[in-house]
Structure formats: C-alpha cells, structure tokens
Design brief:
143 residues, alpha/beta, 47% helix, globular
C-alpha cells in the first residue's frame, strides 16, 4: 500500500505523515493489505472548483473522492480543499485539524465503497463508521 500526499496549497501547514498514517489505518481495517496506491491532493477552493466542474458544479466542496476500484493499481484519488475546511470547521465545533481529518476519513470511506447519496440507510451507516474512525483516531486521542 502506497499513499501519495500532494500538497498544492500554502494556506495551511499539512502533516503528510499523519495523513498517511490515518489513511493506512482506515484502509487496512476496511480492505486489508494490498499492493495499491492512493493519491491525496491537498488544495484550495479554486482548484477543487475545477475538479467539481466534472460533476456539473461550479462551486467548491470540502472533499472529492474518485474511486477506481479496489482491484486497480491506483484505487482512487482524494481532493481536499483546506479553504472549505477552514470555513466549515467552526460550524461543527472542530478545530481546523479535526475537521481536516474528519473529511479525510470521509473521502477514504468513499474510496472503499461507502456512499451517503444512495439512501438514508447508506448515509447513516457511512456517517456512523466515519464518526467511529474519527473518535478512534483523532478526537479521543487528543485528550
């Protein structure tokens, strides 16, 4: 398993090692060991808006996940906007760092097959798993 973190923004310090550690823990738990790669692009609102155009949207989002299949050499790409995360973190009572990792986990779950747009049941399951990882890997560890 290889996790590539590409930081294309200068708005916030990014801890690439911690991003890789969290990604590896989630992926190991969800899919086990494998000979695959995952790319995580850290960017700003302007850049993520360009990616969103492929989805027919002209506004930024906090995260986009492009899943290519778990049997592929590159299982997916995750794009995260630090600007969007910075704006929304206070709304959820999170620090920037907490919100960043919460959104990272969200993107990872999409890569391994979770979806919250198909049904309320799927959404409930995905957000429960996301919250579990967040409290296991981020929130509870800070105390």
């Amino acid at each position: 398993m290889k996790i590539n973190v590409i930081n294309q923004q200068e708005l916030r310090e990014i801890n690439s090692k911690k991003i890789k550690d969290i990604a590896k823990k989630v992926l190991l738990n969800e899919v086990g060991k494998g000979n695959f790669e995952l790319n995580i692009l850290i960017t700003d609102d302007k850049s993520i808006t360009e990616f969103n155009k492929y989805r027919g949207k002209s506004t930024p989002t906090d995260v986009l996940s492009f899943s290519y299949g778990l049997s592929e050499p590159v299982i997916g790409d995750i794009v995260i906007s630090v600007e969007s995360i910075e704006k929304q973190a206070p709304d959820f009572g999170n620090s920037f760092e907490e919100e960043f990792y919460y959104i990272l986990i969200h993107g990872l779950l999409h890569i391994v097959g979770y979806d919250h747009e198909n049904s309320e049941e799927d959404a409930k399951k995905m957000f429960e798993v996301q919250d579990q990882y967040f409290h296991q890997l981020i929130k509870d560890r800070r105390r």
